[in-house]
Amino acid sequence: MMASFIAFLFNMITTFVGCLLILRAYVFYQRLSIFDPIARLAWFGTNWLVVPVSRLVKPGRRWEWASVLSAFIMAAVVAVVTRQVTGLPVGWLGVPICAFFLLLRWILELVLWGTIIYVVLSWLQPASPAYGMVWRLMNPILGPISSRLPRLAGIDWSPLIIFLIVNALLYWVTPLSQGYFVSAWL
Questions:
Q1: SS3 (DSSP) at 155
Q2: What is the pTM of this model?
Q3: SS3 string of 163-182?
Q4: How far is the C-alpha of 90 from the C-alpha of 176, rounded, in Å?
């Protein structure tokens, strides 16, 4: 009972930090102001890991590669710990593959939660500053679909399409991120 609680807690903390690292890289890509609350959360919540890594990897023009590398390192640590706890072998090729799929899972979960927050804010407070920040983050994802879909009854259906696509992808990515199919191959 206690071991499953500790595993749950470890998973929650590492998922939160991994998503913050990905969000930080995306905020840098989107060129959001550091004074936006979402950007501040991503920035100051991950400085403890990104600053040491940034001494090795310099940021590019569009991407902060230290955040991306830090997220991959976090995913690799989670993959090793998860494989050790579940009794799966830790292979030199299996860990990076699991880490890649875990990183992909975190990205998909961020898109899913961003879409949900976007929809709720668009219904409740479309004039709020928080909606503007979420819109800037989600518009590159929702915009291309929204421009191609007709509006039925004045409703934008692109969040529903993204929600269905992301859930379908999570159905396949989640087992790979946990190392179930990778252990059979490696």
A1: strand
A2: 0.89
A3: HHHHHHHHHHHHHHHCCCCH
A4: 14
